[in-house]
Amino acid sequence: MDLYSGYINKLIDELSGLPGIGSKSAQRLAFHLISMPEAKVRRLADAMVQAKQNVRYCRECFTLTDDEICPICKNDRRDHTTIMVVENTRDLAAYEKTGKYTGVYHVLHGAISPMLGIGPHDIRLKELMERLSAGPQIREVIIATNSSLEGETTAMYISKLIKPAGVRVTRIASGVPVGGDLEYIDEVTLLRALEGRVEM
Ligand code: ZN
What we know:
Elements: H1 6-15, H2 23-35, H3 38-54, E1 56-57, E2 64-65, H4 71-74, E3 79-86, H5 89-98, E4 103-107, H6 125-134, E5 140-143, H7 149-162, E6 168-171, H8 187-195, E7 198-199
Parallel strand pairs: 3-4, 3-5, 5-6
Antiparallel strand pairs: 1-2, 6-7
Helix pairs in contact: 1-2, 5-8
The protein binds zinc ion.
């Protein structure tokens, strides 16, 4: 005999498929949702569907945005000759929060991981190379991938790919804790890592 109703079971099942949500959290969330006013639940569901339907990749930097070109790429006051390469949109947001970085970004949406079978063609690397050859003269590419094994592998790979083109390639300082996701690191540490970047 099932402990809960079929609908609750289905809800718990869907929720526990989300990253970071174990079965206990899924149960807690499911019961919370059931107890919420229907209008509120509907707003939440609508927000999820609308985000899914309307959010897309910026044509320039591939961050997630509502428009064809994101507000950062659109901004003339940003330095379009400096590109910071990050693994995902959350990392971009972490650097934006410091308010001190004035260049633009390139979002890879992942990192190279031979163990997980993720190769250079599975992330937005080709698009980065296209930007470098097509766009305005790029003076520096700052590689700000995580300091995990995957992040370091990706950084080395990109550096080898770009350097022959004569572009300056730097790597954020290793003050960032090894294996640490950039989004969990405080702004001061991020700034220090950026300012202390080294040539690759
Ligand atoms: Zn953009």
